[in-house]
Amino acid sequence: MKHHAAHTLVAAYALGALESDEREDVDAHLRACAACRQEAAEFQATAARLAAAVSQPPPPAAKAQVMAAIDGVRQLPQRIPAASTAPVLGGILRRRAVPLALAASVAAAALGGVAVWQTQNGQDLEQQARQAQQQLDAVSAVLAAPDARTVHGRAANGALTTVVASERQNQAVFTAANLPAPGPGKTYQLWLNHDGTMRPAGLIHGDGTVVLTGNPADAGAVGLTLEPTGGSPQPTTNPLLLMPLPA
Questions:
Q1: What is the CB neighbour count within 10 angstroms for residue 2?
Q2: pLDDT for 96-127, tens place per residue?
C-alpha cells in the first residue's frame, strides 16, 4: 500500500471502520511509518474524548423498560438499495468514515443520555446529569483555552495517552485509549509529580477523558499507576506512565 493511500485510511483505521483486508494493509504500513502511527493514536484519543465527555451509564431499569415496550413498536420494512448504486455507496462510506464515525460517537452518546433520562425521573439521575454536564464543561474549557498545550504518550501497558493543559484555566485533561481492563479489585490512578512527590490526581476506569484533580501549575509530569479499587494516598506500584506536562 502506498503511503498516500494508507494515510487517507488512518482515521478510519483508528475508529475500526475498515474492512479486514484494508485493516491488514494499514497495520503493515503503521509498523514502518512513525508519522501515521502518531496520527492513529491521536484519532483514537480524540474519539475516546468525544464519546466519554457526554456518555452516561444507563440505569438498571432501562433494559427491562425497553424490553417491555418492544412489542408495541412497529417494525419498518427492509430497505434494499439499488444494485447499480451499492458498490459506489460502499466506497464513499468507507472513505467518509472519519466524520461519520466521530459524529456518530457524539450523537449516540448524547441521544443515549437523553433516552436514559426519560426512562427514570429521580434525583439520583438528575444528579448524574449535572455531574456529567460539569465534567463536560470543565473538559471543554481546557480544550478551548487559547493557551492549551498538548502532549502525547504511550503507557507501559500499550495505552495511548494525551494530556491537554491550560495555564490560564490552571487545569489539565487526561485522555486514554486502548487502556486494558484493570482487573478485579484494581483501578487506574493518576498522579501529579511535584518535584518528585506524587500527589493523587484522580481515577480513570477505562478509555475516556478526565480532568486531573489537584494543582497542575507547579507539577512537572503526570503519572499513571494500577492501584486497589478506590485509589491510594501514594503509589503502590511502578508507574505505567510518567509523562511531562506540556510546556
A1: 7
A2: 444 444 444 444 444 445 444 444 555 666 66
Note if the pTM is more than 0.70.
Answer: no
Residue 129 falls inside a structural domain:
no
Q: How many domains does the chain have?
A: 2
Domain carrying residue 202: 149-244
Over the stretch 128-155, which tens digit does the pLDDT of each residue have? 667 777 777 788 888 888 888 888 899 9
Number of H helices, E strands in the chain: 8, 8
Q: How far apart are CA 171 and CA 141, in angstroms?
A: 9
- The SS3 of residue 120 is coil
Q: Distance between CA atoms of 56 and 1, rounded to whole angstroms?
A: 40
Which grid coordinates are listed for 109?
Answer: 452518546
Rg (C-alpha) for the chain, rounded Å, is 21
